Amino acid sequence: MYLFCSRIMDHRYFLVYKPYKMVSQFISPDRDKVNLLGDLDFQFPKGTHAIGRLDNHSEGLLLLTTNQKVTRLLFEGERSHERTYLVRAKGHMLPETLQRLQAGVRILVAEDTHYLAAPTRAVIVAKPAGLQPRPSEPPDKAPHTWLLITLTEGKYHQVRKMVGAIHHRCQRLIRVSIEDIELGDMQPGEVREIGEQAFFERLKIGQFV
Fold first, then answer.
1. pLDDT single digits (tens) 63-110
2. Residue 171 CB neighbours (<10 A)
3. Is-contact 201 194, C-beta < 8 A?
4. Considering just the CA atoms, what is the radius of gyration of the chain in Å?
């Protein structure tokens, strides 16, 4: 059961397809060098912020809201939440290599510190129909493998490091879903607003009363 408090009913919630080479913030000391969320063709209300991040070279689903509590509810709750990524890996991936990824691999998380990633749902897929090309993306004829990888952990650059640990290089990374909120047919730079109740239900988080 999801409970909603009247004092937060004016909060707003947004889905964004963050484009390649855009940082997940509105303000940056490197403003002249990077694209920001404020450059999108959308008038966000005051107090809007990103929930989590995608790095400059990653694309896909980014959640924004004016509700300051959502980050804590999503990332500091008792339950881990699934995030799914579409990944283009350099080279043809063998079944036994995929099995290594599925079983969990060791990744470097700090200088001289390794972390054993939890077993992961990972499957080889075809390139999705209608996927827009990315600037400087290698051509389709170059050997590569498309994967869908689902994580409940969120170490820094974890997907890229996991793919690298099995001796492939991540050439493109697109977050396609967070729990039941999906990117669907959204295109790079697109913004969609979602209602509060649907937002919480699809993320499978409750609200404080």
1. 999 998 898 888 776 778 899 999 999 999 999 999 999 999 999 988
2. 18
3. no
4. 18
Cβ–Cβ under 8 Å, residues 203 and 74? yes
Cα–Cα distances in angstroms (integers) from residue 60 to residues 53, 82, 100, 177, in the given order: 10, 15, 26, 8
Give the predicted TM-score (pTM) of the model. 0.91
> Is there a contact between 196 and 1 (Cβ–Cβ < 8 Å)?
no
List Cβ neighbours of 57 (8 Å cut-off, separation of 6 or more).
20, 21, 173
Which parts of the chain have pLDDT scores under 70? 1-9, 77, 207-209
* Sole residue written with tokens 């509105």: 26
pLDDT at 111: 85
- Structure confidence at residue 82 (pLDDT): 94
Cβ(105)–Cβ(165) below 8 Å: yes
Q: Give the residue numbers marked as catalytic.
A: 55
By CB atoms closer than 10 A (0-12, 13-18, 19+), residue 115 is: middle
Cα dist from 153 to 21, 46, 171, whole Å: 24, 30, 21
Determine the number of helices (DSSP H) and then strands (DSSP E) in the chain.
4, 11
Q: Which of 152, 149, 147, 166 is nearest to 100 (CA)?
A: 166
Q: What is the model's pLDDT at position 5?
A: 45
